[in-house]
Amino acid sequence: MKRFGLTLSMVLFATAIFAQQRHLVLWDNETAPHSNGLSGEEWEQSRGAWRNTTRTDMWIFEANPERKNGMAIVYFPGGGYYTVGTGFSVGKRFADAGYTVACVRYRLPNGHREIPLEDAEEALRVMRSMADEMGFDSSLVGVMGTSAGGYLAASLSVLSLSKPSFSILVYPVISSEKGIRHDGTIINLLGERDADDPAVAGQFSLDKRVDESTPPAILIHCDDDKLVPPVNSTLYYNALKHYGIESSLHIFPSGGHGWSGRSDFEYYHEWFAAVDNWLRRFADKKRR
After folding, report:
1. DSSP-assigned beta bridge partners for residue 250
2. What number of CA atoms fall less than 13 Å from residue 123's CA on the CB side?
3. pLDDT value at residue 19
4. CA atoms of 172 and 21, how far apart (whole Å)
5. How far apart are CA 127 and CA 102, in angstroms?
């Protein structure tokens, strides 16, 4: 399996800010089970937003030793499956609070629907395999995703045989139904033809794939999100409750979309506290 070095700019950025970071390359289009059909150089469209991704990178932030809680999170940033972020600010925040966090820069699907889930499954497998080495409980490894990354985290929770222990879904894309979905995410995942075919696209509405094996989840959204309507979160929450699955839903009155890493978000402290408290209660129940 090939291993790649970070670009110089990424090395300098990571070294300067996050001293306890590890970097892994899980695979690329030549070594993964499937290719997304992209080739050439990956490039950074804006700071932390990458295009043309042909390999799967994972940066691991070790838990603050003074607050270490034995839990781990695999985080999938968003970008509409058009770009993909690195998620460092969110990852570092959770690591500071005591979680071991892996930020995953997955391959963009480019119409190859199996690619993101394939990468997510491998990231979760690798993270669990590192539990003893990094000092967390392999039964307390969950996923987090924002926007299209929320779609990926939820996909891993409902479509995969290897499910996470819990899900944190932050303004997630859930539905593939027109008028509810984020068009770009679904079109970039399925291709325009299949995204416009209700018989095909309907299979990718994740609220309709929830069953009794789906892990518990906490969902965070804003009521005025125009890019990904909050009904995406309510649909998933209602599906979880239909099966009696532990879950929590927080819809803040304002904030729009894309605020997870922004300290100027009005509910910056509240959303993080809600997730942190829910996770600690979840872990306490698992350990009894």
Report:
1. 220
2. 35
3. 41
4. 26
5. 8
Q: Amino acid letter at 174?
A: I
DSSP 8-state secondary structure symbol assigned to residue 159 = T
* E strand intervals along 62-135: 72-76, 84-85, 100-105
In 10 A of CB 125, how many CB atoms? 13
List the chain domain ranges: 8-287
Q: What is the pLDDT of residues 32-52, one digit of tens each?
A: 999 999 999 998 888 878 999
- Write out pLDDT tens, residues 53-97: 999 999 999 999 999 999 999 999 999 999 999 999 999 999 999
Ranges of beta strands (E only) in 131-239 are 141-146, 167-170, 217-222
268 SS3 class? helix
CA distances from 248 to 7, 23, 78, 132, 188 (A): 39, 32, 21, 30, 29
Is the CATH number of domain 8-287 2.10.110.10?
no
Output helix, strand, coil percentages for the chain, rounded to the nearest 5. Answer: 40, 20, 40
Sequence letter at residue 189:
L
Q: Give the span between the Cα atoms of 170 and 156, in whole angstroms.
A: 15
∠ CA 209-167-135, nearest 5°, is 140
Residue 62, C-beta contacts closer than 8 angstroms, at least 6 positions apart: 20, 22, 95, 100, 134
Task: Give the model confidence (pLDDT) of 201-233 as tens digits.
Answer: 999 999 999 999 999 999 999 999 999 999 999
- Calpha distance 151→188 (Å, rounded): 12
Helix (H, G, I), strand (E, B) or coil at 4: coil
DSSP assignment string, 40-81: S--EEEETTEEES--EEEEEEEPPPTTT--S-EEEEE--SBT
Pull the structure tokens for residue 272: 């993080």
